[in-house]
Amino acid sequence: MLSIPCPAPLRSRPFVFLIIFSHLVHAGPLLGPKVSLPPGRHKIIILDEADSMTSAAQQALRRTMEIYSSTTRFALACNISTKIIEPIQSRAAILRYSRLSDEQILTRLKHVCAAEEVSYSDDGLEAIIFTAEGDMRNALNNLQATTSGFGHINQTNVFKVCDQPHPTTVRTIVEHCVKGETGSAVRLVRALWGTGYSSSDIIGTLFKVTKAYDMPEALKLEFLREIGFTHMKIADGVNSLLQLLGLTSRLCQKVEVEQQ
Fold first, then answer.
1. Helix, strand, coil: what percent of the chain each, to 5?
2. From which residue to which does the signal peptide run (predicted)?
């Protein structure tokens, strides 16, 4: 089995992919002897981050897949399946995997820490799980980066490496919003903005904290609805501080309406 990551310089060069894959499926790996498999056995080529390839590169790959379909099986790993061209999708069996649960990530992180003799605290692993968003690769990358930078896994070190707004600060903002304390919430948002975090960083953490916050279900849905609308505006390019302050004010207004 051969796994090939997709380096950025090659993603826009379909002829390079055509040459590489033609060589792999016809003559074997780029390094090492040629391998002839018995009838009924297939070579397996795994292409990671396939959704980063351009349409032209995917068209070149499609032709190669057709030519060597009798001897080779191709596996394309991607995050967004809609970025894979339709001719490839129609020839493939699409398998979708959900995000890992926090318990699954925690179990694996503890196993890695024990195997690599990494010192950690419980709040440090919780911080890694929070930043990973269900992605084991992100979790392991953050674990390695924090260990390389500080030698110990704790909450403070993890958020320094991942450079995300601290959930405790964002949680305090949510608490003020739930209490209807607009002035206090706005001051904290201004302070968080002043530390250099972007709108997308702040609102992404705000969404995750709000989703886990203990509040009436109807109020939580209203909060998430407003956060979602603001996130959409920020994604469209309107990413000023004014958007965050407006969101904070609307969240506080939702509480006042609920109380009435």
1. 65, 5, 30
2. 1-27
Specify whether 113 is located in the same domain as 86: no
As given in the structure block, the two tokens for residue 63 are 């032709």
How many Cα neighbours within 13 Å face the side chain of 126?
A: 8
pTM greater than 0.70 (yes/no): no
Classify residue 98 by its DSSP letter. Answer: P
- Is the residue at 254 inside a domain? yes
List the domain range (segments joined by +) for residue 13.
Answer: 2-90
Report the number of distinct structural domains present in the chain.
Answer: 3
Query: Which residues lie below 8 Å from residue 158, measured CB to CB, with a gap of 6+?
Result: 124, 127, 128, 131, 142, 146
Residue matched to tokens 């190669």: 64
Q: How confident is the prediction for the chain on average, in pLDDT?
A: 84
Q: Tokens at residue 40, please?
A: 């009924």
Q: Name the least confident of 69-73, 108-112, 152-156, 254-258.
A: 254-258
The CATH number linked to 51 is 3.40.50.300
- Asked if residue 96 belongs to a domain, the reply is no
Asked if residue 211 belongs to a domain, the reply is yes
Q: What is the DSSP string of 195-240?
A: TT--HHHHHHHHHHHHHHS-S-HHHHHHHHHHHHHHHHHHHTT--S
- Cβ atoms of 33 and 77 closer than 8 Å: no
